[in-house]
């Protein structure tokens, strides 16, 4: 597919799609709670639809009417043994969090993914769930999907997380909700806290003190009305596009600004970006983001900020190719086990367009600024790599051909339409 090329400026306003992490969790909490959960602004993209399909196979009634998704929860005990293999598609969040839910259910089930997800590591979730008492087996006794789960009575554990991962933390918390006693999870660095927030929102009790989380099992959760804010991880592509394309001025409306997700704003501001936050909606942790074209300087990105911007690193790397100086991204080895190896994919594809990026063991070294030129590039089947490359294509007049653009449907089916609307006066 030929990508949109050099643009004069991105102008106007946009409501970005709903948050993917919150959409997944709203279906999951709806399913394990008692009573009706209504979800407004649910993200209808492939990943979240995988979660819906999984819970339907577990016997949960989920219906969509007038843009509202209604989940009829019957508690954990209302989940039924599936008669088919559960399919998480491309979604790591679906697979890992559902494993935590299945760990406490007294039946056998098998969950698989697509060719990308079936190569992603699952021991990080299987290990702690086994300690709690569940039996989990990967394909041919490996840690890779399909994973068969034989759930049952669980006991609470004390778990020091060896990696910073909200998916692992959430899987343990879903299991802990079904376990006897109080589970303690100690994070390595604070990762997105949507699961903890939703436990409270659905009427549960959870103690959080910095990196220590404590949760007692057998609590009764009750269905709620959820309003999903916009996804800052989707907004990120337009933030960087507006910064890099001259004469741009954008307003991104109702973007989720939960502090565990706003690492990208901190980094871009440090790089010199003109970004202002207005119209704060504290109840839904959302705000409007105003962004204008800016001259960027390099910076160092590493340490505890990494989990707060993990999904934004490919687009931040693009920003760094246009910044003055050398940007160092480190402590981000987790990028290697995302939908694709995002360190290699970002470096290889942007280097084809003229960037100067060295891939390292735990990140990238990016020398900027470098002009970008046309090339044939590949999304590697990864939605965020595909969107990042489209933003890169806006910086050149030459043809950029993208293989596998359909990967973008994983999180943002209207991405090209929305971008096209903001492009004014194309050269
Ligand atoms: C997610 C957590 C992150 C992130 C993913 C969504 C979540 O993964 O990359 O896109 O919703 O919990 P890890 O927990 O593996 O870092």
From TrEMBL:
Compartmental location? Cytoplasm
Which EC class is this protein assigned? Answer: transferase
What Gene3D superfamilies does UniProt report for this protein, alphabetically?
Enolpyruvate transferase domain (3.65.10.10)
Catalytic reactions on record: 3-phosphoshikimate + phosphoenolpyruvate = 5-O-(1-carboxyvinyl)-3-phosphoshikimate + phosphate
Its pathway, per UniProt, is: Metabolic intermediate biosynthesis; chorismate biosynthesis; chorismate from D-erythrose 4-phosphate and phosphoenolpyruvate: step 6/7
Enumerate the active-site residues: 311 (proton acceptor)
State whether it acts alone or in a complex, and with which partners, per the record: Monomer.
What is the name attached to this protein's record? 3-phosphoshikimate 1-carboxyvinyltransferase
In its UniProt entry, the species of origin is given as Candidatus Enterococcus ferrettii
